[in-house]
C-alpha cells in the first residue's frame, strides 16, 4: 500500500486521535521503537502485529468494564 493511502478508518472519527495515542502508549510499554517520521510501513511486521494485538486486548478490556457497569 502506498504512503498516504489508508483503508482502516474509525467508525467514530473523533476516536482516531485516541487510538493513535494508544498505539504509541502500547509501543512504549512493549519497548518497541516508534518511527520518528510517523510512517509505520518500514517497521517489522512482528512489531506492528504485537502493537495491534495489545491494543485490541486493551480495547476489549475497556469494553468489558463498560458493559459490566464499571466505567
Describe the structure.
By secondary structure, the chain is mainly α. Helix content is 55%, strand content 0%. It contains two helices and no strands. Helix 1 crosses helix 2. The longest helix has 23 residues. It is globular. The mean pLDDT is 88.
What is the global morphology?
Answer: globular
Order of helices and strands: HH
**Main sheet makeup:** none
What do the pLDDT scores average to? Answer: 88
Low-pLDDT runs of 5+ residues are: none
* Beta-strand segment tally: 0
The number of distinct helices, counting runs of at least 4 residues, comes to 2
What amount of the residues lies in strands?
Answer: under 5%
> Percentage of helical residues?
40-55%
Give the termini separation: 38 Å
Secondary structure class reads mainly alpha
Backbone CA Rg:
14 Å
Assembly type of the chains comes to single chain
Question: How do the strands and helices of this protein lay out in sequence?
Answer:
Elements: H1 15-30, H2 45-67
Helix pairs in contact: 1-2
Write a short abstract of this structure.
By secondary structure, the protein is mainly α.
What characteristics describe this protein?
single chain; 71 residues; mainly alpha; 2 helices; globular
Amino acid at each position: 500500500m502506498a504512503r498516504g493511502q489508508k483503508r482502516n478508518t474509525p467508525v467514530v472519527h473523533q476516536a482516531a486521535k485516541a487510538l493513535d495515542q494508544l498505539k504509541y502508549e502500547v509501543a512504549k510499554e512493549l519497548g518497541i521503537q516508534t518511527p520518528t517520521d510517523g510512517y509505520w510501513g518500514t517497521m517489522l511486521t512482528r512489531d506492528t502485529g504485537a502493537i495491534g494485538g495489545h491494543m485490541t486486548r486493551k480495547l476489549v478490556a475497556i469494553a468489558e468494564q463498560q458493559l459490566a457497569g464499571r466505567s
